[in-house]
């Protein structure tokens, strides 16, 4: 093999070696993010970073290597949940009828609210400091709801007089009175009742002669 080929082989191998640690790091970060989200969702009070590391089965130094501060972890979880909601609207419409997509999206919204409740103190401080822009998030979520509503109106699957603001307010009310953990069954029942109200009223049939 020529020197150039040998050098080329070394260059390719080196490139793979360089990419692998980065891929591993990204995968490890995603795993930590998933565990942190689950812990935030199930926590009655805001958990410590040490508790999250313990649940993930890693040392606290590993958690801090990926998320140097509590704020950086909270921001990552918050933004990840918002992305799931905003991209989830179109993804669900690609799989389900609009009414079914709306009901499933409501469950995703409940996940987001539950995660927020588990990191509320830090999240409020970050919103107040301007690190997280609440107004932008609200706009993105209303746009996601509108996407499903528009599809539902076109299909005759959802009422034409309901707005995204109506649904957002109803969802916040439901998840406020049925916080997780422990109230999932009641939340599901209230969400089903809300969906009943979002469907168009059945048109009366022709009168019998």
Detailed description of the structure:
This protein is an all-alpha fold and 209 residues long. The chain has nine helices and no strands. It has helices at 3-42, 49-56, 60-66, 70-93, 98-117, 120-129, 134-155, 164-177, 184-198. 23% of the residues are buried. Residues 1-18 have low confidence and may be disordered.
What would you say about this model in short?
With about 210 residues, the protein is mainly alpha-helical.
What does the secondary structure layout of this molecule look like, with pairings?
Blueprint lengths: L2 H40 L6 H8 L3 H7 L3 H24 L4 H20 L2 H10 L4 H22 L8 H14 L6 H15 L11
Helix pairs in contact: 1-2, 1-5, 2-3, 4-5, 4-7, 5-7, 5-9, 7-8, 8-9
């Amino acid at each position: 093999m020529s020197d150039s080929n040998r050098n080329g082989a070394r260059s390719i191998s080196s490139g793979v070696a360089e990419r692998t640690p980065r891929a591993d790091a990204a995968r490890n970060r995603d795993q930590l993010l998933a565990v942190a989200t689950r812990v935030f969702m199930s926590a009655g009070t805001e958990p410590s970073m040490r508790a999250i590391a313990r649940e993930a089965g890693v040392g606290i130094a590993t958690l801090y290597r990926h998320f140097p501060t509590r704020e950086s972890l909270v921001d990552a979880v918050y933004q990840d949940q918002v992305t799931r909601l905003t991209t989830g609207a179109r993804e669900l419409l690609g799989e389900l009828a609009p009414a079914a997509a709306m009901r499933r999206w409501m469950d995703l919204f409940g996940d987001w609210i539950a995660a927020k409740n588990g990191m509320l103190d830090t999240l409020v401080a970050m919103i107040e400091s301007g690190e997280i822009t609440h107004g932008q998030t609200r706009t993105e979520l209303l746009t996601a709801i509108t996407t499903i509503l528009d599809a539902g109106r076109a299909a005759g699957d959802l009422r034409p007089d309901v707005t995204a603001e109506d649904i957002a307010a109803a969802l916040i009310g439901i998840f406020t009175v049925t916080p997780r953990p422990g109230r999932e069954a009641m939340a599901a029942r209230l969400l089903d009742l809300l969906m009943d109200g979002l469907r168009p009223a059945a048109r009366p049939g022709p009168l019998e002669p």
